[in-house]
Amino acid sequence: MRIDVLTIFPDLVDGFAGASLLGRARRAGLLDVRVHDLRAGTDDPHRSVDDAPFGGGAGMVLRAEPLARVVEAVEPPRPLLLLGPGGRRLDQPLARELAAGEGFSLLCGRYEDVDHRVRTQVVDGELSIGDYVLAGGEVAAMVVLEAVGRLVPGVMGNEASAEEESFADGLLEYPQYTRPASWRGHEVPEVLRSGDHARIARWRRAQALHRTRALRPDLLAARGGLSPEEEDLLADVAPVDQPPAAGAGPAPGFPPAADDG
């Protein structure tokens, strides 16, 4: 699979794509990630890619011409997606959809915005990673590279890993444990040490349902709620302790941070 990223910070994106799982996949020839410098499309001594907005206002705007020149020169694989707030939200189904294709490209915005004619004349659409503001599209591009690249066949090595992760079936993943079996008075559930694979699979399914209901009930609602079989499973298998939600304070058993004042 070929994925092109167009950015004014090519070293930032290329460094990320060259590390860890993505880096190994690139070296193995499973992923062809190409990063292009948008400043290569400029023709002035300062290599300026931005200018003040017509009509006034704060910030600068990425110009259409340098971006279009780079796109025309490198002919990146389509679709070419602008990372921005107006696009389809990245989720696991969309990551799978992109991973199933032959390739795609990402255009990283910067400053206040891109010239609107880039949206209408250069790219094929927008892609969003969430409803919050970043300084530019580079971090978003890294998120997309990681989410999609790991799903390309052969990249993860163990294909079963992707099938059992969070969101694979519209649920959060079941809790995971490793050695030691006893840590600070907290024990690994006995079922995971039983060697009974059918019992373990049933327990994991129940815990995924418990965890999703406790932390992300919206995911259950999106899949139509719980089936009668799932309700029976939850009634039969007790949940393990769940972590506190973000902002809810320190985890049980750990003291709060020291007061700087």
From TrEMBL:
Record's GO cellular component terms: cytosol
Catalyzed reactions per annotation: guanosine(37) in tRNA + S-adenosyl-L-methionine = N(1)-methylguanosine(37) in tRNA + S-adenosyl-L-homocysteine + H(+)
tRNA methyltransferase TRMD/TRM10-type domain segment(s): 1-220
Matching InterPro entries: Alpha/beta_knot_MTases, tRNA_m1G_MeTrfase_C_sf, tRNA_m1G_MeTrfase_TrmD, tRNA_m1G_MTases_N, tRNA_MeTrfase_TRMD/TRM10
Biased composition regions of type Low complexity, renumbered to the chain: 235-261
Subcellular location(s) of the protein: Cytoplasm
Sequence similarity: Belongs to the RNA methyltransferase TrmD family.
Protein name from the UniProt record: tRNA (guanine-N(1)-)-methyltransferase
Organism: Iamia majanohamensis
Gene: trmD
